[in-house]
Amino acid sequence: MRPxxxxxRLLLLAPLAAAVLAVPLGVHAASGADPGAGAEPPKPGPAGxxxxxxxxxxxxVAYCHNPYPSVDLVRLHTExxxxxxxxxxGEAIAVEPGRTVRLEDRCWKEIxxxxxxxRPAPR
Length: 123
What we know:
Blueprint lengths: L1 H30 L18 E7 L2 E7 L6 E9 L7 E2 L3 E3 L4 E7 L4 E10 L3
Antiparallel strand pairs: 1-2, 2-6, 3-4, 3-5, 3-7
């Protein structure tokens, strides 16, 4: 009688063991594809300087502070109000992490607009 009891127990436990092993596989299949396949590339962290621009008459001054760990290149662009006055695009200045830079420019007469452009520094 002993072999029959052992066989009965094994026959009763076999479906239970198969169910325990199949549940994680079913959950993995339902959650999507393999973690290595179709994985999204990492999103870039925040970057760029915060700039304040002020215009007084024919002069423009911009202060740019970089609170992020990457280097930011900033350029001051000035558009003069008079048609004969030359518009200017300043040179790119590297703003190191935690640093503040001052950018300035002028026109002969009034300034129409001024803005600062950003781009990440090459590595």
